[in-house]
Amino acid sequence: MIHDYLPICREDMDRRGWEECDFVYVSGDAYVDHPSFGPAIISRLLESRGYKVGIIAQPDWKDPQSIQILGKPRLGFLVSAGNMDSMVNHYSVSKKRRQQDSYTPGGVMGKRPDYATIVYCNLIRSVYKDSAIIIGGIEASLRRLAHYDYWSNRLKRSILLDSQADLISYGMGEHSIVEIADALNSGIDVKDITFIDGTVFKTRNLEIVYDYKLLPDYQELKDDKKVYAKSFYVQYSNTDPVLGKRLVEPYYGKEYVVQNPPAKPLTQEEMDEVYALPYMRNYHPCYEAEGGIPAIREIKFSLISNRGCFGACSFCALTFHQGRIIQQEAMSLWLRKQSF
Questions:
Q1: What's the rounded Cα separation, in Å, for the pair 190 and 193?
Q2: CATH architecture label of 10-259
Q3: 334, exposed or middle or buried, with CB in 10 Å at 0-12, 13-18, 19+?
Q4: Which residue has the higher pLDDT, 304 or 283?
Q5: Centroid of chain to Cα 251
Q6: What sign does the dihedral 35-40-45-47 (CA atoms) show?
Q7: Does residue 37 surpass a pLDDT of 50?
Q8: What percent of the chain lies above the pLDDT cut of 70?
Q9: In the chain, which end has fewer C-beta atoms inside a 10 angstrom radius, N or C?
Q10: Average of pLDDT values for 154-174?
Q11: Average pLDDT in the 295-319 region?
């Protein structure tokens, strides 16, 4: 395995002797190969399993050519808005435009669209109509079912429908993304991948879904805020990978969005493996002339200690995204022992 940044152009692919990528990862952030960045973890993990992964960082969403620079991937596209929700990245709580994007070269604003996951997926779908599209990251994870959108002040349907994607890998996606990749690689059509924990899929045939809890129809959620609040409470109560139920959300009784139970948390050994992958631990050198990526300054030499939270703070989405079970890396335990 070559210890270098993953390919971002055809020349990089040629240098590795690749004719095509297995997966192309489209991200709203600039390419930073550091384990504090979700896209880096997912792409390096897939690489460690033998998959060829290319990176398209911050494509021009107004130009279809921008997502064709690596060609059509063999297995599919992976799409994420980046480390942050694109709307939080762009706007303050008072809906004022922010002055800096720390995940963009030189901190420049405007290199990604609002609702980036939806925009990127629709751009991909307009060019590669039959490619599998799997979305993930905080933006997709928190919008996996019907959700209140603060920015437009209205209830929106699952991001899976608006983005035209095939699957959501929600939460911390190490387990689910490898299972998805292996399923696609074995020849299973993405529309038949309905069995993986930590994923959300859509279907018009509820007969293929079993052992589920039925949520209110989207129309009911729109009509009554209390019904939506109760529905969200059911979602929030099913973030436990041991007891969590499969949830089904109907859309006008014609289509269904199905959330499979959460994926199991990483064991300590698995977490150690994830953070020991051969990251370059810096932003791609192509950004140097533009001033680098500001976000690297605080985390370049950091160590990830734990994940998950058993709290239920009303202002925080950590439990909903990462789950309630606390996971720790061996290095953090070692450092803690040294401090005593």
A1: 5
A2: 3-Layer(aba) Sandwich (3.40)
A3: exposed
A4: 283
A5: 23
A6: negative
A7: yes
A8: 96
A9: C
A10: 96
A11: 80
Query: If you average pLDDT over residues 290-303, what whole number do you get?
Result: 89
Contact 107, 285 (CB under 8 A): no
Cβ distance 23 to 53 under 8 Å?
yes
CB contact burial 151-170 (16+ within 10 A = b; e otherwise): eeeeebbbbbbbbebbbbbb
- pLDDT, mean of residues 175-203: 97
Q: Residue 126: is its pLDDT beyond 80? A: yes
The pLDDT assigned to 241 comes to 87
Instruction: Tell me whether strands 282-283 and 147-149 are parallel, antiparallel or unpaired.
Output: unpaired
Q: How far apart are CA 164 and CA 126, in angstroms?
A: 10
Please state the three-class secondary structure of 74-128 as a single string.
Answer: CCEEEEECCCCCHHHHHECCCCCECCCCCCCHHHCCCCCCCCHHHHHHHHHHHHC
Token pair of 298, please? 């605080």
How far CA 27 is from CA of 12, 33, 43, 259, in Å, comes to: 18, 12, 11, 23
- Render the burial of 202-224: b for 16+ CB within 10 Å, e for the rest: beeeeeebeebeebbbbeebbee
Residue closest to 28 by CA, chosen among 4, 51, 53, 60:
60
Strands 147-149 vs 23-27: parallel, antiparallel or unpaired: unpaired
pTM over 0.85: yes
Helices vs strands, H then E, count in the chain: 13, 15
Range in 60-69, 175-184, 236-245, 287-296 the model is least confident about: 236-245
